[in-house]
Amino acid sequence: IQIRSDKDKEIHIRYSITGVGADQPPMEVFSIDPVSGRMYVTRPMDREERASYHLRAHAVDMNGNKVENPIDLYIYVIDMNDNRPEFINQVYNGSVDEGSKPGTYVMTVTANDADDSTTANGMVRYRIVTQTPQSPSQNMFTINSETGDIVTVAAGLDREKVQQYVVIVQATDMEGNLNYGLSNTATAIITVTDVNDNPPEFTTSTYSGEVPENRVEVVVANLTVMDRDQPHSPNWNAIYRIISGDPSGHFTIRTDPVTNEGMVTVVKAVDYEMNRAFMLTVMVSNQAPLASGIQMSFQSTAGVTISVTDVNEAPYFPTNHKLIRLEEGVPTGTVLTTFSAVDPDRFMQQAVRYSKLSDPANWLNINATNGQITTAAVLDRESDYIKNNVYEATFLAADNGIPPASGTGTLQIYLIDINDNAPELLPKEAQICEKPNLNVINITAADADIDPNIGPFVFELPSVPSAVRKNWTITRLNGDYAQLSLRITYLEAGVYDVPIIVTDSGNPPLYNTSIIKVKVCPCDENGDCTTIGAVAAAGLGTGAIIAILICIIILLTMVLLFVVWMKRREKERHTKQLLIDPEDDVRDNILKYDEEGGGEEDQDYDLSQLQQPETMDHVLNKTPGVRRVDERPIGADPQYPIRPVIPHPGDIGDFINEGLRAADNDPTAPPYDSLLVFDYEGSGSTAGSVSSLNSSSSGDQDYDYLNDWGPRFKKLADMYGGGEED
């Protein structure tokens, strides 16, 4: 474009432009000749980058003064077909049900063209290039050229034949003109989804199985079916139903989730004696209903024959637990009842034998052949084996089948009480004051029987001996309690055996004469027995009490004198120990030395004597008076003191001193003042003899103290100390 001012003839004018594409980014896309006003494009334009520009043109004189008002310049970039259509996805995935009618929508593909959509450059059209596979028709789908919607165009989609189609779609601009337009392609994958158009069918029309009676959760037969629908989908999963042949519900059919087989399972035990075989009619269907227009196949039903095998069943007691009632105390051998069992194996000729399984008191016997129960002992309702008046025993009934079977039955015997227990007086002991007052004894009775063979009780005193009724009296309180009290004004303290006759209310009534020990004692003002009175009531007189006290005092005095004597003796021993010379006190000055013989002198020794002797023959065969200096002298063993079993602490010092003196004077105790025999360690030592070391007796060392060390060091004292010789 060229701009021009009407005033350019009068003055010199300079032109310029401002705005986006001039002095604003993108910079210098446009330029202008400042003298002629011609505008130029400096580089190629891209409409897809920027479709229009808005600039302002300015006109000024040579001094820069505005000559004209700025004018707006609108520049539009004209589109060219320089962009191909681009699909949003290179691969599109869609699905359609098998058996769909023509015109069924499948999916939509979309391609975009960057060119101007208002012109043919940006108008995209679609078409299907290829379809794979071309079955059952090469044109199973069509596409809307403008919207890109893919729909079915032919019938016959069958997943069991073709599960997937691959369709190549082409998008072309220039309104689909293949000569001038630009094109691009994409892939549409169409999956044929399954519908339940194939009913399940049994692989055979009849099945058979076998089951032992009385067994549950046993798989009797496996039913196999075939279904061409997609495996492990609701259209394929089988559901089995028993239509007829099992009115009692003994069987059910469960589906194996992996194989889709039907497992006929026993859920209710069958009885061979009731049903020897079952004829079942079963039907199979899918979880999902069949597609519209699809009918069930006649092969979706089948028959199942199940045979029941007989097994040896255990006898059973029809009445279990069986309860009978009878009075206690029936004699031994009484027939109580017949407790018989029934063998359910009606088609087996078997015998039933009876035996006891549990009879805690061993009161009953049972006939091994007919189950008749008789008593083996007298039944006692008051026994510890009775719980709530009921005795319970368990019996075993076993047949002789192969293998044998057995059943148990429980017999409960309710024992009716009879009056067979006399009442017992309570309490057995009591105490009362020697003078009559409000202090009385309440008595009652205990009866092992139950009502009506217990109370009310009758309490009375016997007429013999006469002193009982003379000294005592009974006052009735109620049917179960009475009071025993003194009849006379004073009764000497002591323990009295008072007989009382107690009679129950049974039919016939039973009575018992019970003895209550009554302690009569002096009482204080509160009616309680005093301490002295209690002793006196126990039967001890004043003289006996005084004698007991004197004995106690004498015993305490003897114990006190013994303690004083022991303390005095301990003090004397302690004083004696303090007088012992500390140097002679072996308890505090036990010294230990290496005993190596009686000393060494400058003389030659026969080293063969240091060798271990092989035998003791040379010792036993020596002439009298000749012995080796390293041998134990032969003679009587000295007598050492015997240590007491339980020594007193003060005797330990004496014992040690006596033992020390005996050891010092024992010639058989080592060392023997001679060479000791050690293990021979070999010859040829490179070291010289120890005897070559000169022992000097000169010097300032004083060895006289060796004389104070006792007989053991006498030899050393003689050699070095120069002491007196014995």
From TrEMBL:
InterPro entries: Cadherin (IPR039808), Cadherin-like_dom (IPR002126), Cadherin-like_sf (IPR015919), Cadherin_CS (IPR020894), Cadherin_Y-type_LIR (IPR000233), Catenin-bd_sf (IPR027397). One of its GO terms (cellular component) is cell surface. Residues 5-87, 88-202, 203-317, 318-425, 424-532 form the Cadherin domain. The keyword Signal applies. GO terms for molecular function: beta-catenin binding; cadherin binding; calcium ion binding. PANTHER family: CADHERIN-23, CADHERIN-4. This is Cadherin-4.
